[in-house]
UniProtKB/TrEMBL annotation, chain A:
GO cellular component: membrane
Protein name as annotated: ABC-2 family transporter protein
Transmembrane segments: 26-49, 192-214, 244-268, 288-308, 320-338, 370-391, 426-445, 457-479, 499-522, 584-607, 614-639, 670-689
Gene Ontology BP terms: CAAX-box protein maturation
PANTHER family: ABC TRANSPORTER PERMEASE, ABC TRANSPORTER PERMEASE PROTEIN NATB
Keyword tags: Membrane, Transmembrane, Transmembrane helix
GO molecular function, one term: ABC-type transporter activity
Domain CAAX prenyl protease 2/Lysostaphin resistance protein A-like: residue ranges: 549-643
InterPro entries: Rce1/LyrA-like_dom
TrEMBL record, chain B:
Keywords: ATP-binding, Nodulation, Nucleotide-binding, Transport
Gene: ybhF_4
Organism listed in the record: Allorhodopirellula solitaria
Keyword ATP-binding among UniProt keywords: yes
Full protein name: Putative ABC transporter ATP-binding protein YbhF
Pfam families in alphabetical order: ABC_tran
């Protein structure tokens, strides 16, 4: 059966057509944006009108008599009642306007209750001046309370000026002190939208994705179309992928429609300037970023929703699953509004929260590249993991037309052992690896940093090796045990022809030199993202390496990574990818993953490691493919790492070989020529070595 | 055309393991209608599901047009047509869109699918329905659309699961005509049903299942000979009531 992109597009088009014709989709896609935002803007306008600010003619103060009105107006016009310039500047720079009116029927309190005034004033006037003043505000009304507060302040300023004049007359040497106000630090963005948009994004995307996700999974069961669909000669994950594309598309359409309606409403009602701040606005660049975020949001939510709705027996059951998820999804969105919460540390891999924080950072124009990169990659991996779960569940019990699957069924071991994991299982492992390695390595770094000088270099190296085993070792191992896969075939633990070991060893003699040169070039071309502090720390670490045992260095930095990473990338993931991919696609996919995982180190983004590590991954993948075994690659990986670490440790002693001259960190040309020769000879040995019988023979057969 | 080799399926429950299908074997040739009969829970539907690849057998295999399902399940699926009484439709698609979608699922090219659709629409009298939304069809119309869907990729083997369940007299007659058409065009047909009177009229050969095992297999004449009973209903009664055991026959 030909699984082409055009076929996938046709399958997706059918799902999309079906969904877009449904009245329920139209309701969320069209009616929501048309109705909700105008209503919300009306509510917000009402809120702003009733909030602290005065009306267009200033605060309206009511009094009972003309005498009271005259006195109050003279007070408000008296410059002595005005705050000094410095105080005025600190509180907005504008003097509040007041309008004094005589209340109808001479009852200011009643007029205040009737919402005709902002505040009421009662003055007991005798001999031209009031002996007491009572100012009344409407309880709970911010504008009314502001009017009362400012009026009281005016009275106090007047009293203070009078008192100062009297004091100067009594004590001529009295001088008042000057008060000036000033500001330091970065100005806080007045962009309220930066906080609101992520929250709205979450709501909009869920709204758009929920109905199609339910309809295209649980709905298939309810309509009675699931059996016919699953009986067709198309893999289930392919059917699910078409549904996923449809759900993402509808979610994206809904989100874009909502976003458009929101901006149109805000612009038309004039609320935009209030929310964005003085001189603010949303340009094309910001809109572009928001659109990309919407794609990411939709990709994530659609996968999560599909994995949940695939459990459901019916529409109702699916809705019951999704309501708590919708509420849960709001929690991180609201958490992101809290000050001090940023896209750093474990929060960068916290599902959903990381994207909401990224949205906020983008809209505030303050993006941290590492956090953003980790957030995007981890979200895509979560989406892939959720899709893998959905593919495992979708239609797996089409027989009964009702689902007997439960959450526990995901972890139930199959009764029959299989030779290798599926691509879906590999997706779940990859999705777990990134957050796990990020959290473990970050936690480790933080712990080491907190310990200060107490943790020595040998301990640091040992802990690094342990964290590698705990993530890249244990996660695939658990997946292998849970999936009941045969260890030898899953990890490709087969004996290989001795020529492959020889070729791998010879290749490693050359490969390390090129890896070293790639790092030097990346540094020279300013591709490295390390700051001075990090570079200094790395140099300090390399200096410390010169003092530790070479055995420990080689064990922790060469032996453990060689064994664990080869078992993970060229073992578990390679055999899983080979079930659906051709050999070179498998080699490239595992190499890119290998390169990506070497970029994230603790809280540092080592971009310069990507290309050399990916190239090493390609070489290791090719050896693994040719030999049919993970073992020759393990040898090459060990020798490659070991030589790099030992050259770093014995750098000074190797100076006599011309390893580094003043100002030139490159290896001598002779070394590079020898390394190139070794690499070519190694490649030739492996190329001409008779191939071991490949464990993927069956996969090849089924693809032919 | 269809060969079943020792298919076995057990369902593991909370307290017990049920053997739904136990070493079942039979075969159906081109132009032959085979009735897979048995009471509720006999294992008929489970057998069909295993052949269709909806559930994996614990052991055994099926061979569809020479393709073992265990070796190349997707190629085997492409040779199978399936119709069930509980089949539904996509309410928001037109009948034409839905049928062409299924043709695409089975890898039939657009031109060939359109040509087949016209032929089948004429045979099943749904030409006037092709541009109507499937959600607006009556029960009888839906049934005819479903029958066309099963044949849109021209499979050599057709599996029908309780095809007359819930249908009125007219609907049942439509099914009879459909099965006659299948026989006429040389399809190997398996019909699962517990409507024994209908089975007697429809099928060329029979397999009587009980508790997952094939009890009798053969033509009606052969079954009469070995069971000593005239009608399938009586043979069934013997199966359900062990006090009057049937004659021992090899299957």
């Amino acid at each position: 059966m030909n699984l082409s992109w055009s076929r996938l597009a046709r399958l997706s088009r059918k799902e999309l057509r079906e969904t877009l014709r449904d009245r329920r989709t139209i309701l969320t896609l069209v009616m929501m944006p048309l109705l909700v935002y105008p209503l919300l803007s009306m509510a917000m306008n009402r809120f702003l009108i009733s909030s602290a600010g005065p009306g267009t003619n200033g605060f309206v103060i009511g009094v009972d008599t003309e005498q009271e009105s005259n006195w109050l107006q003279s007070l408000l016009h008296d410059p002595r009642s005005h705050p000094p310039e410095s105080i005025l500047a600190a509180s907005g720079g504008e003097l509040a306007e007041f309008q004094v009116v005589i209340a109808p029927e001479g009852n200011a309190d009643q007029a205040l209750l009737d919402n005709e005034l902002d505040a009421a004033a009662h003055l007991a006037i005798s001999e031209g001046d009031p002996s007491s003043i009572r100012i009344t505000a409407f309880a709970g009304d911010q504008a009314s309370e502001s009017a009362r507060r400012i009026l009281i302040e005016r009275l106090h300023w007047l009293k203070l000026q009078d008192a100062e004049g009297i004091l100067k007359r009594i004590v001529p040497e009295f001088t008042s002190y000057d008060v000036t106000t000033t500001e330091i630090g970065e100005p806080q963005s007045g962009n309220v939208l930066a906080s609101i948009i992520p929250l709205v994004l979450v709501l909009m995307t869920i709204t758009g994705a929920v109905y199609p996700a339910i309809d295209l999974t649980a709905g298939e069961r309810e309509r009675g179309t699931m059996e016919a669909l699953i009986a067709s000669p198309v893999p289930r994950w392919w059917l699910l992928l078409a549904k996923y594309i449809a759900v993402v598309s509808v979610a994206l359409l809904t989100a874009v429609a909502n976003l458009g309606a929101m901006f149109a409403t805000l612009s038309l009602t004039g609320l935009m300037s209030t929310l964005v701040g003085e001189g603010g606005g949303m340009g094309l660049k910001e809109m572009g970023y928001i659109f990309l975020l919407l794609v990411l949001f939709s990709a994530f939510f659609a996968a999560v929703l599909l994995s949940l709705t695939s459990f459901a027996r019916s529409f109702k059951e699916a809705q019951a699953y999704l309501i708590p998820i919708m509420l849960l999804a709001l929690a991180p969105a609201i958490l992101s509004l809290m000050p001090g919460v940023g896209l750093t540390g474990p929060l960068a891999v916290a599902p959903l929260l990381n994207i909401v924080l990224l949205a906020r950072e983008i809209l505030e124009g303050d993006v941290h590249p590492l956090g953003a990169c980790v957030a995007v990659v981890s979200t895509l991996l979560y989406a892939a993991g959720a899709l893998a779960i959905a593919a495992k569940l979708f239609g797996s019990d089409a027989v009964t037309r009702t689902s007997d699957q439960s959450i526990g069924s995901l972890f139930r071991r199959p009764t029959i052992a299989t030779p290798r994991p599926s691509i879906g299982e590999a997706g779940m492992v990859i999705a777990l690896l990134l957050p796990a390695s990020f959290v473990v390595s970050n936690a480790l770094m933080q712990w080491i940093r907190r310990q200060g000088g107490e943790i020595n270099v040998p301990w640091q190296l040992t802990l690094n090796a342990i964290s590698l085993i705990a993530t890249f070792g244990l996660i695939p191992l658990l997946a292998t045990v849970l999936g009941r896969h045969e260890f030898a075939s899953t990890y490709r633990l087969r004996r290989a022809n001795v020529g492959f070991y020889l070729g791998a060893a010879v290749m490693s003699l050359g490969a390390w030199a090129f890896a070293y040169e790639a790092l030097v070039l990346a540094d020279e071309w300013k591709l490295a993202l390390l700051n001075e502090d990090q570079i200094e720390r790395t140099r300090g670490l390399l200096e410390k390496w010169k003092t530790i045992s070479p055995v420990l260095l080689v064990t922790t930095m060469a032996f453990v990574p060689a064994v664990i990473e080869e078992l993970c990338f060229r073992g578990y993931l390679f055999s899983a990818f080979r079930t659906v991919l051709r050999p070179w696609h498998t080699i490239l996919a595992t190499a890119v993953l290998f390169g990506l995982f070497h970029v994230f180190v603790g809280s540092t983004l080592l971009i310069e490691r990507f290309i050399p590590t990916t190239l090493l991954g390609i070489a290791l993948g090719w050896i693994a493919y040719r030999s049919g075994s993970v073992l020759p690659g393990m040898l090459m990986h060990f020798l490659h790492n070991g030589m790099l670490e030992l050259v770093a440790r014995y750098h000074d002693q190797l100076a006599f070989l011309g390893s580094e001259t003043e100002g030139n960190r490159h290896l001598p040309p002779l070394w590079i020529a020898i390394a190139g020769g070794c690499l070519l000879i190694g490649i030739a040995i492996i190329h001409f070595c008779p191939r071991t019988e490949r464990p993927e023979a069956m996969a090849d057969l089924s693809q032919a | 055309m269809l060969q079943i080799h020792a298919l076995t399926k057990r369902f593991v429950g909370e307290s017990e393991t049920v053997c739904a299908v136990d070493g079942l074997s039979f075969e159906v040739g081109p132009g032959e209608v085979f009735g897979l009969l048995g009471p509720n829970g006999a294992g008929k539907t489970t057998t069909l599901r295993m052949v269709l690849g909806l559930i994996a057998p614990d052991s055994g295999d099926a061979e569809v047009a020479g393709i073992p399902t265990s070796v190349d399940p997707f190629a085997a699926k492409a040779k199978l047509g399936f119709v069930s009484a509980s089949d539904g439709v996509y309410p928001w698609l037109t009948v034409r869109e839905m049928l062409l979608y299924f043709a695409d699922l089975y890898g039939v090219g657009p031109d060939e699918a359109t040509a087949r659709l016209h032929v089948l629409a004429e045979v099943m009298d749904i030409e006037g329905l092709l541009d109507r939304r499937a959600g607006t069809l009556s029960t009888g119309q839906r049934q005819r659309v479903t029958l066309v869907r099963g044949l849109i990729h021209d499979p050599p083997v057709m599996l029908l699961d309780e095809p007359t369940r819930g249908l009125d007299v007219v609907g049942v007659q439509t099914i009879f005509r459909y099965i006659s058409h299948l026989r006429h065009v040389g399809k190997a047909v398996v019909v699962c049903t517990h409507r024994l009177d209908e089975a007697e009229r429809l099928c060329d050969r029979f397999g009587l299942l009980h508790r997952g095992k094939m009890q009798y297999e053969g033509t009606l004449t052969q079954l009469r000979g070995v069971s000593g009973r005239e009608h399938l209903v009586e043979m069934f009664d013997d199966l359900m009531n062990p006090s009057t055991p049937p004659n021992e026959i090899p299957t």
